[in-house]
Amino acid sequence: MARLSIIVLVIMVLVLRTALSELCNPQDKQALLQIKKDLGNPTTLSSWLPNTDCCKPEWEGVSCDTDTKSYRVNILDLNGLSLTKPYPIPSSVGNLPYLGSLYISRMNNLVGSIPPSIAKLTKLGFIRISHTNVSGQIPNFLSQMKSLITIDFSYNALSGTLPPSLSSLPNLVGISLDGNRISGTIPGSFGSFPKHFTVLTLSRNRLTGNIPTTLAKLGLSFVDLSENMLEGDASVLFGANKNLRKIDLAKNLLAFDLGKISLRSKNLEGLDLRKNRIYGTLPKVLTSLKYLRTLNVSYNNLCGQIPQGGKLQRFSEYCYAHNKCLCGSPLPPCT
Ligand SMILES: *[C@@H]1O[C@H](CO)[C@@H](O)[C@H](O)[C@H]1NC(C)=O
Ligand SMILES: *[C@@H]1O[C@H](CO)[C@@H](O)[C@H](O)[C@H]1NC(C)=O
């Protein structure tokens, strides 16, 4: 009998000690366990157990804030979970108020729209929902989440138009919305992104109309607007911008005089303009680009001699092919 009570006592002390030494905030744990349940208890999350510490590495995809020693959950990275049937993004993610990064990617069977509860995550800097079947609109409430630094919603089934209010986010550095079903025009307000905004990728959508001239105000480094139905002039993207490193405008309906662009960036590494209706000549300034690694201007209406020098002769003839009358190395000589 005495032996039994000693054993019971030892067990109680042990249980109490683990409970006291647990770093996980009880509210955070409750939210995480709800997320697990809302996703149908996927096997990848089998390590999320009520009687263990969510700040321990066993909790797949969960990190707690060790810097400030608040130990609140600040990163949730749900990648490649295999869901047994269709589930929406659990609205319980909104109950992790200290979340700085939310990554949800490559999840089969993830459907439905982006839940409004995400707006409660006022400390969120980085949000990624990518390679899922999440649909619906890009939510307007994002513009209230003033901590956001990057938004990556690439490769989902999002539709509707681009919310003009996104440009009011004061800390935003980049937006990636590639591979969705977004339609309409690029809002003129997108010219008022903050000074440090450098990445805009909207490829593989259904965007139409002209590229707004206001975008000339941005200091973009990476621009990808390829595979849309954009038309008209794209020269605004080259002019004022000294930081441009990569620009992909391939497979649109763009029509402008390439010979008239003023390219201010000396650091351009990639220029893809293939399959548009761009006319005029190739500007001489291209020969001064020391870091140019990729170039493709094929399938346009360009004409005249390819400027000789710099890196321009290192690209194959296929990068210049199918234009109106481009000539000179690597294409046959001008006559
Ligand atoms: C999205 O749904 C389509 C059609 O049901 C399916 O083929 C595709 O694999 C799904 N994608 C993801 C990432 O679940
Ligand atoms: C340039 O684009 C054309 C048309 O899409 C393609 O056939 C060619 O392979 C491309 N060249 C390079 C080097 O990528």
Automatic annotation (TrEMBL):
Domain of life, per lineage: Eukaryota
Topological type in the membrane: Peripheral membrane protein
GO BP: any one term: defense response
Pfam families referenced in this protein's UniProt entry, alphabetically: LRR_1, LRRNT_2
A GO cellular component annotation in the UniProt record: membrane
Gene3D superfamilies: Ribonuclease Inhibitor
Predominant subcellular localization, coarse grouping: membrane
Signal peptide: 1-21
Keywords: Cell wall, Disulfide bond, Leucine-rich repeat, Membrane, Plant defense, Repeat, Secreted, Signal
UniProt-annotated location(s): Membrane; Secreted, Cell wall
Species assigned in the record: Phaseolus vulgaris
Recorded family membership: Belongs to the polygalacturonase-inhibiting protein family.
Protein name (Swiss-Prot/TrEMBL): Polygalacturonase inhibiting protein
Leucine-rich repeat-containing N-terminal plant-type domain segment(s): 26-65
